[in-house]
Amino acid sequence: MASLDDLAFFRQLALAGNLTATARELGLSLSAVSKRLKQIEARLGVELATRTTRRWTLTAEGERYLARGMALLEELAELEESLGEDRRALAGPIRINATFGFGRRHVAPLLSDFCAQHPGIEASLELSNFPAPLVEGVDLGIRIGEPPDSRLIARRLVINRRVPCASPDYLAQHGRPVAVSDLQRHACLVLRENDSDFAQWRFEDAQGKEASVKVGGRLASNDGEVIKRLALDGHGIMLRSWWDVCDDLAAGRLIQLLPGWQGVRADFFAVYAQRRHVPARLRALVDFLAKGLEDRIAVPA
Question: Does one domain contain both 100 and 230?
Fold first, then answer.
């Protein structure tokens, strides 16, 4: 048991990235964490990490101990969970990664509901602007689009479309575009999210016909919430995901434009690593998210 405890401790240390964060997460003193690491190294007879006052880096032996150790811990957890699945009591850790906007608006409240139903679940939701590919220690990624990595499993959680919309005040003053090309004559709110051609808006109709238009306007931002605020305040037309504007459309604060045309698909997927036994808690969470997201933000046919 001591070896397994050491593996679990070292995994926590590696995921935290430094001694101070590990001490904080485990509720221990910094000296206690440092002493525990030295004891493990003394027992193994190797140095697992090099550390200075500012940096903490795994040695080659530390990388090997972490990789093999995490695999062993995962296999043990899967074995114990598979033996206890008939009890239908979900328990154990789940680490989730998602984007800031979608994570705050939809993943967080659904995760809250899931954890309330399953008190044995220990969940960590990490948000970032542009989530990287699934990394060690992350159990579930919520991503737009299917990943190119065939070693990952991707399940579509919800269909998502980008829709052109504007406030009633803006439309009362400037009129509605009736064709995609009309957007060139309107003030469009440009979202500069990444290195793509952010001013080129692309659309599809129900038959799959495509159209695109170069848009422009005097206001732009790299933040979706800012763009939506500007649209609600009547500054122009925006192209935003359905998940972000469906409530405002339903309440009449925004009006969907160009009937028959929608932005290209931007579906959300649950992404997780392939393994012989996917933990029941992970499968249950993915099912819960799929059902919950469908109820919250289903795109109308």
Answer: no
Total number of domains in the chain: 3
- Tens of pLDDT along 140-184? 999 887 766 667 788 999 888 899 999 999 999 999 999 999 999
Query: What does pTM read for this prediction?
Result: 0.69
Helices 2-16, 30-44: crossing angle, 10 deg rounding = 120
Domain that holds residue 52: 2-81
Question: Side chain identity at 106, as an amino acid letter?
Answer: H
| 181, burial (CB in 10 Å: exposed 0-12, middle 13-18, buried 19+) | exposed
Dihedral of CA atoms 95, 278, 135, 160 in degrees, nearest 10, equals -80
Concatenated DSSP letters of 118-181: -TEEEEEEEEESSPPSP-TT--EEEEES--S-TTEEEEEEE--BEEEEE-HHHHHHH----SGG
CA distance 241 to 124: 25
197 in the same domain as 230: yes
